[in-house]
Amino acid sequence: PITPMDATGMRDYTRPLDLKNGRVEMAHGAGGRAMAHLIETLFARRLGNEWLAQGDDGAVLPAPGEGRLVMATDSHVVSPLFFPGGDIGCLSVHGTINDVAVMGAKPLWLSAAFILEEGFPLGDLARIVDSMALAAKQAGVPVVTGDTKVVERGKGDGVFITTTGVGLLPFGRELSGRRAQAGDAILVSGALGDHGMAIMAGRDNLGFESPIMSDTAALHGLIETLLACGAELHVLRDPTRGGLATTLNEIARQSGVGMLLQEKALPVNPLVAAACEFLGLDPLYVANEGKLVAICAENDAETLLSAMRRHPLGAQAAIIGSVHEDPQHFVQMATALGGKRIVDWLTGDQLPRIC
């Protein structure tokens, strides 16, 4: 269904949006009345706050006080758009909040840019924006500015969303992939691979008796807990695309160190492990959207682990390995059988369109 005509034979974009049967039209991205109507009645109504209500090309935001700004941006092209435990809307909020928070910054504001395909159901778009709004409200990080474009039918894939986040980093706080040191401990905040396998199960209709749920979540509350526990933190990172293995290889290269993981210590939910085995995948390379990797001074590992486990998002946290000197910057794993193997970079893209 398309927008009805008014008495003059022109499209009538003053009527309420038909969220049950209506579809995105090219006019919704053309910058005119139709686009203004879509923004006002769908986006602004759901994401509304005092900064978004300014209605300008950029939001005028309060000065953050003493500290430095952290800015991160991420594009989201996940398929399917709706999956067990989440959807592209909440995922786009959580992912960018986490990218800001793992730098040690307090996330303050988000922007959101939408690329919509002509013909996409308005009801599904409203569901996505509602999910974004709820995620932003729960996280206390509002969407303060945005943009919308529409591409011709067949030239997109429903909805792509790019979100950008801004946060405040206090002076003296330094967290970076460059700061891992020989002797450090490596921790993860919970079970690996939940998000990636939830996407794959939904995409391929694997039909497990109990659905695998995505772990998508905003991690800044957990990170605040870790920063307050007194442990000497060096690195925080969220292991998204490429999973834990790729993330640790990135950090090892940045810091010029090697790492040794303990296979027996890696937390993986049984259903995820079974799904990975069925599909021939390694949980180490499967994406997560609600977990973090923390690297800290060895003497503070138990303190950090206790702090993680006290938070709901860290209940399955574990110490999984250590950092050591290695001019080759290899990530290795001590296997359950007593040997060692290289945990190399992800080659190719075993799980496309995962976030």
Describe the overall structure:
The protein has helices at residues 33-47, 88-101, 122-139, 194-204, 220-228, 243-255, 270-279, 301-310, and strands spanning 68-76, 82-83, 86-87, 106-117, 143-151, 159-169, 185-188, 233-237, 258-262, 293-296, 318-324, 331-334, 340-342. With 355 residues, it is α+β, with helices and mostly antiparallel strands. It has a seven-stranded mixed sheet with strand order 8-10-7-11-9-12-13. The protein has a four-stranded mixed sheet with strand order 1-6-4-5. A hairpin with a 2-residue loop joins strand 2 (82-83) and strand 3. Helix 1 (33-47) packs parallel to helix 3 (122-139) and helix 2 (88-101) packs parallel to helix 3.
Q: Count up the helices.
A: 8
Number of strands: 13
Assign the structural class, choosing from mainly alpha, mainly beta, alpha/beta, alpha+beta, or little secondary structure: alpha+beta
Order of helices and strands: HEEEHEHEEEHHEHEHEHEEE
Largest sheet: 7 strands, mixed
Mean pLDDT: 91
User: Which word captures the global form?
Assistant: globular
User: Cα-atom Rg, whole angstroms?
Assistant: 22 Å
Query: Strand arrangement, largest sheet?
Result: 8-10-7-11-9-12-13
The fraction of residues assigned to DSSP E strands is 15-25%
Into which percent range does the helicity of residues fall? 25-40%
Low-confidence stretches: none
Distance from first to last alpha carbon: 30 Å
